[in-house]
Fold each of these.
Amino acid sequence: MRKIIVTEFISLDGVIQAPGGPEEDTSGNFKYGGWTASYNDGVSGKLIEKQLKPADLLLGRKTFEIFAGFWPLHADHWPGINDVTKYVLSNTMEKSDWKNSVFLKSLAEIEKIKNSAGSDLKIWGSSKLVELLMKNDLVDELWLKIFPVTLGTGKKLFEGAIPAAFAVTESTVTPSGVIFANYQRAGEVKTGTVGP
C-alpha cells in the first residue's frame, strides 16, 4: 500500500494558497501570492530538498496546471519531477503534454492507486483534493511548513476535515521562524479531563 502524504506551505491561520509567487493563484482576489518568499534561509532550503525527493504526485487540476506550466522547463530545481507519474483528479482535463500525466475521475480510482504497489503519493497545494481526501480519511501523513504569518483570506487546508489524531514524527524550526513539522495518522481523537 502506498502512503498519501500532504505537503503544504501553510500560514498560522491555515491558508495554503499561492505561497510561491504573486501570479501563482489569484483566485478569490487573493492578494498575498508569494507570502513565503521572505522566510527563505539555508535550513529551509535543505529541508525542502529532502521533501522534493522523487515520488509520484497526486494533484488537483488547478495545481497540476500551475505545475505543468512551470516544472517541465525548470526540472533542474526539482530533479525527477518530469519522470514521476503525475496523477490528476479532474472532471474537465483528460490529457496533457507533460509526460507521465494520468487523469482520474473519482475517489475510487485514487483508492485503487493507494492500494497498489509503488512509491508514496505526495500532494502539493491542491486544496480541494486534500479536502476530499481528509473527509474520507485517506491522508496518511501531513508534512507542513508553518510560516509565522496570518493572511486572513485564501484557500484553507483543513476545510471539512474529519476528527483524527496525528503524531509528530519530525520537526525543525528554521532561523527565519518556519516550523517544519511532519505528522503521521495516529488513530482516533482521544478525550479526557485536564487537571484534578
Amino acid sequence: MLYTEEEVLDYVKEEDVKFVRLAYFDLSGKQKNATIMASELPRAFENGIAFDASAIPDFEEPNKADLFLYPDASTLSVLPWRPSAGKVIRLFCDIKNPDGTPYKKDCRHLLKTATAKIKAECGVDLQFGTEFEFYLFKLNENGEATKIPFDNAGYMDIAPEDKGENIRRNICFTLEQMGITPEASHHEEGPGQNEVDFRYSDPLTAADNASTFKWIVRTKAAESGLYADFSPKPIQEKPGSGMHINISCSDSSKNENILAGILKHIEEITYYLNPTENSYNRLGEAKAPKYICWGKANRSALLRVPVSKEKARIEIRSSDSGCNPYIAFTLLIHAAIDGIKNNLKPCEPSDLNLFDPQVAKNSGYKPIPDTLDEAKYIAEKSEFIGEILG
C-alpha cells in the first residue's frame, strides 16, 4: 500500500507509534538511519531532519556537511519485532541540500531519475526482481561469527538436513508483515547456504525491498544465534553467493535491445555489480559466469533469458549482494536506454558450457574484469559511467 503524508500521520496517531526510523543509504549501499520521536514527524515531512554528511564516507567535506532527510511517506513499514505498544515504524528518505534540491549522491534519487528517463525517452517501464543467496554460520562462545556452516544440507534438501527451514520461514513471515512478499525460498548447494527470491516490481520498490531483506535476514539470524553472511565467496572451496537481477520490460519487443545494451556496457558496470575483492573469487566458478555473452536457459552465460511461460525476462547472473542495488539498477536502466534508443542488437546466443575451462578458452568470448582494481579502472575511464554518476 502506498501512503500519503496525511495517512502516515493519521496512522502514527491511531496506532500508538512512538518512534520513527528515517533510513537512507551511503554510496556502498549500507543502510543508515536516524530515529526521531513520532511527534517530530510533521517537521520532518515539512523541513527535513539535518544530519552530518561529513560523517558518511564519500559524501561531503565538513564545510558542506549539512544535508537533510525528507521521509518518503509511500515507504511506511512497521517493525514487527518491536513492541506493539509504542510501535516503531521505518520510512526511507530522500536526501536534499539545504535549498531543497536533491542531493547528487542520493542513490534513491539516481534510480528515480533513471526510471523516469526510460519512460520519457523510450516509452517503456522496467521491472526488477532479485534472487539472494547467503550463508548461515554458527557463532563461537564469544558471540563472534565463525565459518562453521549451520548445516551440511545441499540443493533443495529438506529438514532435518536443512536446518535453515524455520529461519527462512521466519524471514518470510517478517517480510510479509512489512508488506514485502517473497516468491520462493530453499536451501542452496553450499552447506548452510540459502536462497530467497522476489517477484518483480518497479525498480525503486525492488531496491528498497532488497535492502530491507538483507537487514531482516541479519536480524533474524542474530535472533537465532547465527550470523548471516552475504559475501560472494565466504568459503573458498564451496559455492559462492550471488544476487541475480531479473529485468522485465513492459514492451517485450524491446528485450533484444535491452539485452544488447547491457552486453555493451557490462564491463563498465561490473565494478558496481561486483564491488569487493571477494567478488572476483566467485566469478568464473560453477553458477558464477565470467564471459560476456548471453544464452537461452544457459546458466553459464553472463546474461540468461530463461525459458518461461510467464513474462519474458533477462537475468544478470554475475552480480552479488555486495552491490548497492540502487546504483546497480540505475546503471542497468541506462544501458537499456542506450540499447533501445540506438536499436542495438545482441550477438548470437551461446549454448556452450562456459564453466568448462577449455570450452571457455576456445569460445572467443571476452571475460569481464578479473580483479576489483581492473574493474575500477574500466569504470573510472568510462564516459558512460561518468555521464550517469559524475
Amino acid sequence: MRLIDTHVHINFDVFQGRLNSLQEHWQEAGVVHLVHSCVEPNEFQGMQSLADRFPELSLAVGLHPLDVHKWKQDTAEEILSLASADRRVVAIGETGLDLYKADNYEQQKQAFVEQLHIAKKLNKPVIIHCRDAALHLKEILEDFWQNVGVVKGVMHCWGGSTEETKWFLDLGFYISFSGIVTFKNAQSIREAAKIVPSDRLLIETDCPFLAPVPKRGKTNEPAYVRYVAECVASLRNIPLEILAQQTTANACQLFGIQLPPSRYNSDKVVSLN
C-alpha cells in the first residue's frame, strides 16, 4: 500500500530537530510522496533545501490568502520565476480566499486571480484554500474559466457542504480531505467525502495542523494521513487498499508525480496505534 500526503508544511519550526524521525514515521505508515505547500514565496528556499534532503518531496509556490498584505508589485513575477526554475514545483499555491479570519476580500481576490494566471501560463494546478468563501470562490473561478480559460487544481483541506462540493467538482477540481473528516462533529464534510468521484479524491494532513482522530490535539505529521485514508475508506465502504490506490493515482495524475518502483516495503505497513 502506498499513500501520498498532498498537503504538508514540514518547514514549520515545530518540526525542527525531528525531521529524520518524521521521515521514518511516514515511511513506516506507507507514505511514499508528499506535496509541500507554500504560505509565502520567502519560505521557498527553505522548502527547496527540504526537497534536497527528502527526494519524496514535491513543491508548490504561492501566497496564502491570509498573507496577501505581503503581496507586492513584483510578487507575481517572483512566483512565476520560482515555479519555472525548479522542476520539483508541481503546483501554484496555496492560494484562494479566507473570509473567516479576514475581511479584505478585494485584496485576496486580486492575489488569487494573479496566481490563477500564473498557473494557467505554466499549465500547473492550483492548490486552493477556501474558508467561508465558497460562493465568492465559485464566482471568481467561473469568470476566469469563461474569460481566460480552465485551470486544474484541488480544493485542499475541504470543509464545504455536499452542494458546495458539487460546485467545484463541476469546475473540474479534485477534492482533498484532511483530518477534519475524522471529527465526529464534521458531519457535512463526512457526507461530502462520500460523493466525490473516485477519480477526483485526494487525502492530506495539512500538518502540523488538524491532527486526525485518534491523534487529535497533537502535532499533526505526514504519517497520520493514514488515519485520514482509513476514515474516508470507511465512509465510502471500500477497503483501505483500494482507497490508497485511488488517491495515490489521483495525486500522480493531478500533480504529474512519477513514483519510482516501490522504495519501501510498503506492503508491510507498521500499525500506528
